[in-house]
Amino acid sequence: MLGIGACTRSEATVLPEPIVRLDSLLLSPPATPLGDWLLVGRYEVTREEYGLDADPRGANLPVVMISFEEAATWSQERGLRLPSLKEWQYLASDSGSMTSVSANARNGLPLDLGRPLPVGVFERGRTSLGAYDFFGNVREWVHEPSEQRFFACGGSYASRDASSFEWEQLEVEASERAADVGFRYVADATTYFREQVIPYWQQLDVEQRAQLELILSDWREPSRTALAARLLTAGAPQDFCQFLGSK
């Protein structure tokens, strides 16, 4: 769900789309010892965000019947990507701490609904980082890049049991589609900021910077500080790094 309304309070101060998208992203520590900080979608991608029909009754439902190839292309066009298997497992297990989601905290087979619900319904099922629906609603596309293997991971409305103890990872072909498989995007934080956010930095007026500050304030301060230090080392403007790390 792309929170444009929360970030653009007047037509005169509309933020660029890559910056608006930060409102739907969470900042996670690296999934691997040598990895970058990760930006991860708070929700599974919705029909509205994907660009399907604007029927308000289905706008916030997760998009499904999308192949890995289609999801990957859509993400790449926005400076994003799909998670690797290791990244998805790290994020779903609450940054590496094993987790189990009870049946009444996710949309699974025990609820007997037989359909997805709007994203973000189950507050009790979200991770401590603030991400929703890893183990319910719809499965999510992930891949093992070194082996070119593709998986539909997590629980869905058709899953009887789903937790980090079982993983519910189904190996499938990249071209397949299913009524209970959608996707969640991630991005390497350093790359996304350098390519999608910092190029707009000098153009932002005072009100736009205040809106960006509000978005970033939702992220944990130690994480922002660590990312700011990494960006500074990578040659990002010092004033931006101070802005990012001091909120």
Written description of the protein model:
The protein has 247 residues and is of the alpha+beta class. The protein is globular. Helix 8 (221-233) runs antiparallel to helix 9 (238-245). The strands form two sheets. It has a four-stranded mixed sheet, with helices on one face. Strand 3 and strand 4 (149-153) form a beta hairpin. It is 28% helix and 11% strand.
Query: What's the overall geometry?
Result: globular
Mean pLDDT: 88
Helix content: 25-40%
Tell me the number of helical segments per DSSP (H or I, 4 or more residues long): 9
In which order are the strands of the major sheet placed?
5-4-3-6
Tell me the fraction of residues in β-strands, as a range: 5-15%
Characteristics of this structure?
3-stranded antiparallel β-sheet; 4-stranded mixed β-sheet; single chain; 247 residues; alpha+beta; 9 helices; disordered N terminus
Please render the helix and strand layout as text.
Layout: H1 4-7, H2 17-20, E1 25-28, E2 38-41, H3 47-50, H4 68-76, H5 85-92, E3 139-144, E4 149-153, E5 170-172, E6 181-182, E7 186-188, H6 189-197, H7 206-216, H8 221-233, H9 238-245
Parallel strand pairs: 3-6
Antiparallel strand pairs: 1-2, 2-7, 3-4, 4-5
Helix pairs in contact: 8-9
In short:
With 247 residues, this protein is an alpha+beta fold. It has nine helices and seven strands, in the order ααββαααβββββαααα. The N terminus is likely disordered.
